[in-house]
Amino acid sequence: MDLLKIGMISFAHGHAFSYFNSLLELPEVKIVGIADEVKSRVEGIAERHEVPYYADYRDLLAQDVDAVIICSENVHHAKLVIDAANAKKHVLCEKPLGTTKEEMEQMIAACKHNGVQLMTAFPCRYLAAVVRAKEAIERGEIGDIVAIKGTNHGGNPGGWFIDKSLSGGGAVLDHTVHVMDLMNWFLQSEVKEVYAYAATLFREELEVEDAGMLHIKFENGVFAVLDTSWSRPKSFPTWGDVTMEIVGTQGVITVDGFAQKNDLFSNAAGKGQYTFWGDNMDAFMIRDFVKALRQGEQVPVTGEDGLKAAQVALAAYESVKLGQPVVM
């Protein structure tokens, strides 16, 4: 089988570097180009690996490319995905899939119309603890799920993430979607209602919220709570977490996605640090994306999955504005 030719569009999101390195590990993949209007973001990595650079992503799309990975600022996802779809390229798009329901529906429709696949970047599905929890739930080990408590705490990422004109929102949009996708994956039930609180608590000068708490009701009767805050200070040992406590009628499963770590005390860093030694979730996600395309199979995490998770964040903003629950 021929090599799968993949290009990358924008390294605005830091995950792009991990995805690029994951592609390098796959002998069945050829990275055919990097497009980024900010050359300084990618100049070093493009030169080091002798990958062609394009200042205009449309020039990359005009090449012989099978698929692209998009890691731009959130507000550009829709245009980039739709243009890639119209160029007949498969797409892996960084989360959140989009910043409005309408644009995400347009992205999904464009990919379907052009016969290409759209995958949402939800690598947390590949964390060992998450995979084991999913398997235990499917075996019925905790009976029927009653409730879930989740967290995706993090530090303030700064940069374009705190510029609403580029991010589309703050901590709620940034951090709701990962754990929300896991809840959707575990429960296989639609969200019925969202009630949320959001505020700027840790850095008053921000124009976006850095704290959020969501209460979610599902159609199957399960209720959930999710803390999505950028509440970790610079001195905290790691960037953040992905945790879940899943309560069932016959037991409880506790998930700590990044617990496979060593404690490192570094004079150079000036603080204690957690060094993660577990499996590389990004590498597993990229591997599955490539495998699906090469074998002509459905990608494991679809555009519809991305829409479902992001819709909850958008409903949370509506709830904050109204001061009451929002029915989905």
UniProtKB/TrEMBL annotation:
Superkingdom of origin organism: Bacteria
SUPFAM superfamilies: Glyceraldehyde-3-phosphate dehydrogenase-like, C-terminal domain, NAD(P)-binding Rossmann-fold domains
Domain Gfo/Idh/MocA-like oxidoreductase N-terminal intervals: 20-121
Domain GFO/IDH/MocA-like oxidoreductase positions: 131-253
UniProt name for this protein: Gfo/Idh/MocA family oxidoreductase
Organism of derivation: Paenibacillus violae
Classification of source organism: Bacteria, Bacillati, Bacillota, Bacilli, Bacillales
